[in-house]
Amino acid sequence: MSLPARVTTLVIAFLAVVAGVVYVALHYIGSQPPVVDYTPVASNGQVSVTLMTAPQTTVTDKPDWVTYFIKDPSTGQFVHTTYFEVPADTRINVTILGYDGCTPLRNPLWGHVTGTIGGVENVSIFNGKTYSPATPVSTFDSYANCSVQHTFAIPGLGINVPVASPNTVAENNALCTTSPCVANNASEALAPHSVVTFSFVTPKTGGTFRWQCFIPCGGGYLDGNGGPMGTPGYMMGQMEVQA
Ligand SMILES: [Cu+2]
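Above: inputs. Below: predicted complex with copper (II) ion.
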């Protein structure tokens, strides 16, 4: 092989390795889910934030992972992310559309609603036909009843919200199968789900607050804590508080 040919081969091989390293760094380590910005739609010291849980993530290359979605207030579309931004010192009125089925909590402590205004979440269950009346709930016993699917917890603010689930076997066997479970697919939007609402107030100073689910819902992973439980954009995320 001539010298120029050897140099060319070496350079190409080197660039291939560099490309591989860059791909791994961006794809597996550095990739951050998009941030849904609610700050422009806050008014009178309040803002409404809408999340969704789903039994699968058919919009990504992890179709069998459970996940959250967040509704983009500017488009009305559910975005596959767990990162959102809200203003400081503001009442956040959260709605979670809970489209997944029930899983028991590993620790009954996480069945207590904490850190919300009034210490409760309001729960309505859609059974596929009708909604039950919204009822305030402060404690769930996820072993006695099929009642909780995931949790929405911000440990840095003392917030823990067990996300209520559809209760019956029939409902849990009729869950949505394509995510996000939204109105552009009417049969999915009408799958059994919970509607959970609660409010809390963001701190007066800004900051980044990690939030996550505490149900070990990473099916197929050690103790259920891998996969979606440890991956930003699925069962853990960030609330960015803008001062
Ligand atoms: Cu979960």
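The chain has a mean pLDDT of 93.
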